[in-house]
Design brief:
Blueprint lengths: L20 H19 L2 H8 L4 H30 L1 H24 L20 H15 L9 H8 L2 H21 L14 H13 L59 H39 L1 E2 L15 H26 L5 H32 L10 E4 L4 H25 L5 H4 L2 H23 L12 H25 L5 H15 L1
Parallel strand pairs: 1-2
Helix pairs in contact: 1-7, 2-3, 3-4, 3-9, 3-14, 4-5, 4-7, 6-7, 9-11, 9-12, 9-14, 9-15, 10-12, 11-12, 11-15, 12-16
C-alpha cells in the first residue's frame, strides 16, 4: 500500500494520496495500542495469574518480544513476494485479534488459569498442560499483529482494576485498528508482488557452490552482466570474497543465444554478486548490533522483575505499574532524539565541518549502553544490601523499602544510547545496502532486536544453569553479577565494533549520504 504507479483497471475512483492517511494511521494506532496493552505487562500477568516463576516469565516475555520484531520482517517478505501488503496486514490483524480474544478468555474463565496463591509461594499450583497450551496459542496468535507502545494506561488498568478489562481494551483496540484498515481498502494502491530481492542473493550462493571447482578468469568477457551485456562492474581480481565471482562466470549452457539466462540457479549477474559481496562486508558491523541489543533485552526483563520487588508508590494514592517502567526508555529516547538532531549534530558540524557519521553515532551508543549496564549493577547492589539488611532473602513477596525511581538512571542511559545507535544503524544500512535491498535495509533493526531477544533468552537460561545468580526470589539472587557480566560483554563488543568500524570503508558515500541523512532525520 503506497504511492507507486501500478497496472490496474481504471475503476473511476481515485486511489492513494492523503485520503489514505486517516485509515492507515487509525489502523496503526489501534494495532499498536492492542499489542502494547498485553505485551508490556505480560511478565506480571504470568507471575500473578498463571503462577509462573519470575525468571521463566521473563524468558517467555523475551521470546514474545523476539517474535514481535521478527514477524514484521517475515510479513514484508511474504507481501513483496506473494500476496501484497494489504492482505498480509489484514490477515495478521485478524489472527492477532483471535489471540487477544483468547488471552481475554484466560483472564475471564477460572478454568483456564491455575488457582491463585501468594506470589513466590512454593505451594502455588502450576498451570496444567491444557492451560499452558491455550496460553501459548493465545500469545503466538497475538504476536502476529505487532506494535510496541501503549505501555501506560492499559497496563495501569490491568494492575489496579482488572486483567479482563485490560485485555478487553486491547481486543477493542485491535478490532478498531482492523476496521480502519479494511474501511480504507477502496482508497489504497494495491501493488502487485514483485518477488523477493533475497532470491537473487540465494542464487549467487547456490551458483557459487555448484561452480566451486571452476577456475576463475581474469577476463571481463567471461562473466555475465545481464541480457544487455553491459560490463559496468568489472570482475574484481583482488576484492574480498573473490570466490563469489564464480556465480557470474559463464560456462557451457548457462546463457542462451539471445543473452538471457538458461539456468537461473547456475548463473547470476555480476551486479547480484556485488550485492551479496556488499552484504557480507557489512555483516560484521551488523553482528555488533546484535551483541549491543542483547544486554538491553536482558535488562528490560530483569528491570520489570526488580520493579516488582521495589516500592512503586508515587504519592499517597498512585502506584507505578511495574510493566510501565520501560516507558522511561521510550521517553528518554524521544527527548534525546530531539536534542541530538537540533543541538548536538549542528554543534558537531560547526566544530568539525561535517556531520557525525553513522559509525560515530553507533559508537557513542555502544559506550552509553555499557554505562547503563554499569549503573544497573550498582543500583542492584544497593537494592540487595537493603533487602539483606531487612532480612528479606527468604520472603520473595516482600517489598524492599527502596523506591523504584532508582531504576530511572539505567533506563535513561538505555534510552539515550538508543537515540544514538538505532538511527546510526538505520542510516548506515540504508546508505550501504545494495539498491535492490534499500527497503529491506530499514527492517534490519527489527531483525537485530528480534535476534537479540532470542539470544538474551538463551543467555539467561545459561546463567541459571551455570550459576545461582537468578533464583525465582531475586532478593536471594545476584542480579548485580549478571549486570557486571554484561558490562564485560559490552566492553568486549565495543572493542570488536572498533575493529570492524576502523577496517570498514564506505561504499556509497557520494550517492547514498543524502538518502541516509533523510532516513536519519525521519527516524529522529
Amino acid at each position: 500500500m503506497d504511492g507507486r504507479e501500478v497496472n490496474m483497471p481504471n475503476t473511476g475512483s481515485r486511489r492513494g494520496g492523503w485520503i489514505t492517511f486517516t485509515f492507515i494511521t487509525g489502523a496503526a494506532a489501534g494495532l499498536t495500542l492492542a499489542t502494547g496493552g498485553w505485551l508490556s505487562n505480560l511478565i506480571v500477568y504470568l507471575i500473578q495469574e498463571f503462577n509462573v516463576k519470575s525468571i521463566n516469565a521473563a524468558q517467555i516475555s523475551n521470546i514474545m518480544n523476539g517474535c514481535i520484531n521478527l514477524f514484521p520482517v517475515i510479513g514484508a517478505i511474504v507481501a513483496d513476494s506473494f500476496i501484497g501488503s494489504f492482505f498480509v496486514a489484514s490477515i495478521s490483524a485478524c489472527i492477532s485479534l483471535m489471540g487477544i480474544v483468547l488471552l481475554e478468555l484466560t483472564a475471564t474463565l477460572d478454568s483456564l488459569r491455575p488457582q491463585s496463591c501468594d506470589d513466590g509461594s512454593s505451594l502455588c499450583t502450576p498451570p496444567s498442560k491444557l492451560q499452558y497450551a491455550i496460553l501459548y496459542t493465545a500469545l503466538a496468535l497475538a504476536c502476529i499483529g505487532c506494535g510496541s507502545v501503549s505501555s501506560t494506561v492499559i497496563v495501569y488498568i490491568e494492575d489496579n482494576l482488572s486483567w479482563r478489562l485490560g485485555f478487553g481494551l486491547s481486543a477493542i483496540a485491535n478490532f478498531i485498528g482492523l476496521a480502519f484498515l479494511l474501511l480504507g481498502n477502496r482508497f489504497y494502491l494495491h501493488v502487485k508482488p514483485h518477488g523477493s530481492p533475497f532470491t537473487g542473493l540465494i542464487r549467487v550462493i547456490v551458483a557459487t557452490i555448484r561452480k566451486r571447482k571452476v577456475q576463475l578468469s581474469s577476463k571481463t568477457e567471461d562473466y555475465y552482466y545481464g541480457q544487455n551485456g553491459i560490463a559496468e562492474i568489472p570482475p574484481p581480481s583482488k576484492k574480498r570474497f573473490r570466490f563469489l565471482n564464480r556465480a557470474a562466470l559463464k560456462t557451457e549452457g548457462d546463457v542462451q543465444w539471445d543473452g538471457s539466462v538458461a539456468k537461473p540457479w547456475r548463473i547470476c549477474t555480476m551486479q547480484q554478486v556485488e550485492d551479496l559481496r556488499n552484504l557480507m562486508r557489512i555483516l560484521p558491523l551488523w553482528s555488533t548490533g546484535v551483541f549491543l541489543s542483547t544486554p538491553i533485552g536482558i535488562l528490560s526483563s530483569l528491570a520489570i522483575l526488580q520493579a516488582l520487588t521495589m516500592d512503586r508508590s508515587f504519592g499517597p494514592h498512585f502506584k507505578i505499574p511495574s510493566g510501565s517502567i520501560l516507558v522511561l526508555v521510550l521517553i528518554w529516547t524521544s527527548i534525546s532524539l530531539t536534542i541530538i538532531d537540533r543541538f548536538l549534530c549542528p554543534m558537531w558540524q560547526k566544530l568539525t565541518g561535517s556531520s557525525p557519521t553513522p559509525l560515530q553515532r553507533i559508537g557513542v551508543g555502544h559506550v552509553l549502553n555499557t554505562l547503563s549496564m554499569l549503573t544497573s549493577a550498582l543500583v542492584e547492589s544497593k537494592r540487595l544490601k537493603i533487602a539483606h539488611a531487612h532480612h528479606l532473602r527468604d520472603q520473595p513477596s516482600s517489598i524492599v523499602p527502596m523506591s523504584v525511581l532508582w531504576l530511572v538512571p539505567q533506563l535513561a542511559l538505555v534510552g539515550i544510547g538508543e537515540a544514538f545507535h538505532f538511527p546510526g544503524q538505520v542510516a548506515l544500512y540504508y546508505q550501504e545496502f545494495p539498491t535492490s535491498l534499500k527497503t529491506t535495509s530499514t527492517a534490519m533493526i527489527s531483525t537485530i532486536i528480534g535476534i537479540a531477544y532470542y539470544l538474551s533468552t538463551a543467555l539467561i537460561d545459561l546463567v541459571r544453569r551455570v550459576t545461582g545468580w537468578l533464583p525465582d526470589n531475586l532478593n536471594d539472587g545476584r542480579v548485580d553479577n549478571v549486570y557486571w557480566a554484561l558490562v564485560v560483554v559490552g566492553v568486549l563488543n565495543f572493542g570488536y565494533y572498533l575493529m570492524c568500524a576502523c577496517s570498514y570503508r564506505y561504499q556509497n558515500v557520494g550517492k547514498g549520504s543524502e538518502d541516509a541523512a533523510l532516513i536519519n532525520d525521519a527516524d529522529s
